[in-house]
Specification:
This protein has 263 residues and is mainly alpha-helical. Helix content is 62%, strand content 0%. Helix 4 runs antiparallel to helix 5, helix 5 packs antiparallel against helix 14 and helix 7 packs across helix 8. The chain is elongated. The chain starts with a helix and ends with a helix.
Amino acid sequence: MVCRFVELETSIRGTLGSLNNAPENLRPEAWTILKDLIKVLKPFEEFTKAISGQRYTIASLVIVIAQGLFKVYNSLRKTNLAPRVLHVVDKLIANMNERDGFKNLEKSKTLSRCTFLDPRFKHIPFNHNDILLNTTKNDLIEKTANIIRSKYTEEYESVSLADVNTNPNNEQPSIWDDIDSCVAKSTPIGTATSRAIVELQRYMEDSIISRHQDPLKWWKDHSYNYPNLNLEMDTNFLVAHFFDDESVEAVPSIWFIGKRLCA
């Protein structure tokens, strides 16, 4: 409504000037405030479209949106906005910092894993904090390794090379003895953790997709390349955990701040 009002500024001014008993027109500084206020409200419009425009709400958006809001408003703080609008920006930033459910989003392991497993973002939202990046990676490696162990317990059981015996019963020598022995010594016996690390590294090295693409479709198309990570990141994980115990205040906090701003 404010945008439309500003768009019609010329028409409104002209119409009010032609009326006999016209109400008092807005002063020039008031029009400036309205125009600046649109800049402040715009990020919340983007947030609303990002959430409501999806067929399903994805938890991986929460941290990215929160980081984006903080950066936008800290940037607006340094611009030449009207003093009253700058006061609104300061109040907005203070409101975000005061709410634990908003400023501590990155501490949620659930939200961090969801964000990392979104092929539109991956490690990018964590590049500013090496500790957070490594913590999230290690958490994913541990969970992926558990999946591998549960699927292939016997296959990935650690076995020493000393236990490898190509001819245990000292039977008639075979033409395959030599090659079998060499293969046994050269084939690495990978653990669940090492395989999880390799799979996660391959995922990180894969190209990041466009923000407008469907991450769940991407995972469906690449499930063969990342079979264990794909089990970690299923539809229920991204959607159902959106309001888990750790992140229940996340989106309500954003809505609350926006409501307070517009009130």
